[in-house]
Each structure stands twice: as structure tokens, then as C-alpha cells.
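Notes from the 1:1 (GR / supervisor)

We went over the backlog. Supervisor wanted to see one worked example end to end before approving the batch request, so GR pasted a single chain during the call. The sequence is below; no edits were made to it. Supervisor asked that the structure be written out right there so they could see what the output format looks like.
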Amino acid sequence: MGLIIENITKSFENKGVIKTVLKDINLKIKEGEFLTLLGPSGCGKTTLLTIIAGFQSAETGSIYLEDKIVSKPGPDRGFVFQDYALFPWMTVGENIIYPLKIQGVSKEKREKKLEELLNLAGLKGNENLYPYEISGGMKQRTAFVRALGSNPKVLLMDEPLGAIDFQMRHRIQKELEELWLKSKKTVVMVTHDIDEALFLSDRIIVMSKSEGKILGDLKINLKRSRDRESLEYLELKKELTSLLEKALKGNDGFTEI
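Structure output shown during the call:
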């Protein structure tokens, strides 16, 4: 079971020129795994994420979630956007339960779920605040638990910390890790940040700028929470840096660790 990406190919046309962004991409993601797609801008990682989400279709290939083919968006896949996508006219609590309201969940069940999610994210007492009244980290946690509200099988995250100041990133990464450990969800995250990928992931897929080819499939077996100064961490960071340099050049070599 889990998530299977099978022979995915996707091209775009720009001014009469067709560019293949993804070609014959194959991946198997285990249930409960935190997998990160790492690569330079333009390598197709966000395109692949949106195909998994059902926001767009591939030209060839299929996505399977627990043996069911993915053809459109659905509550079995939660999505966390880079800019949080919170409604500014809604409170924290209203934002969190909005997807449940759209799905027709009863008010009583929505309120019960909201209490659960507020406690999970450490947001209890802030449910009546508006997005402009809370920090970037709180916005990120709000977006994360909103995506968990419908109990998806997979959580998809497109550079979820991209809007966080660099100085705050380490603390927010730690908060995100703690939330994920509590939720036990399968996660597919997109980032171009090597340290972020290494700190959060069970497994990292390095994608080339040339047709999204997979240059590396690295299993990260470091104990959580990870020590960024440990020799093992720094060695893996060096390996990922080398792979990312190859990705920028479109190198076709494959590495598995």
C-alpha cells in the first residue's frame, strides 16, 4: 500500500516550444514515510506534487494511492501551500475547519475536530485571532492542521516554510517535525533547501533540472530530533550538496544510499 508514481511524463508549451518537465518518473512511497523532493528551480518537483494532488494531469503514467488511481483532487490528499493560503477574513479556527464545512460535516463534529486540531498544533486560545494577528510560525501550523482536518492519507507540502524568515526556520522546522510525529501521516514535501530536507525527511529524492530525472534516492536513518552539527549529518549534507550540483547541470548519474 502507500503512494505509487508510475511512468509520469509532463510537458508544457511556451511560444510554440514544447519542454518536457518530467519524463518517466517512478517512485514508491511507504505509508507513514516523510519523503522530500529536492532539486533546483525548474526541475519539475512542484509539477509532480500538483499531479499527485490531482490539480493537473500527466500526459502519460498514473498515480495510485492505496491501489486507487488519482484523477482529481480529493480529501484523501491534504495540501499545504507555500504562502499558507489562509483566508484573511476568517479567524484561525474558521480557517482550520473551513474544509470540513465545505464537506458538509455537522457543526458538532466540526467543533470537536477543531478542539483536537488546536491542541495538536498548540494553538488553543488563538482560535479567534485573524491571520494578520499571528506569527509566521502560527500561520504555518494553522495551514498544517487545516490540511489534516479531513484526515487525509497523504499530506502534500509545497515549500511550506518558504514564507518563513531565515532566522526563524530552524525553530519552525522543529515545530513541523513535532506535528508530523504526532500525526503519523505520509508526507511528500517539495523544497530546494538541503538542510530543511535533511532535518525533516526519512527519505530524499534529488531531481535533475533535465526532465526531472531522479539522481539520488537517499534514506536518512539519523535519530530524531537531528543534530545539525553531528558528523553523520554534515556528511549527508555534503553528499546532498554534491548531488544538487549535479542536478543543476542535468547530470544523469544515479545515487542510492
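Supervisor's comment: Residues 231-249 form the longest helix (19 residues).
Batch request approved.
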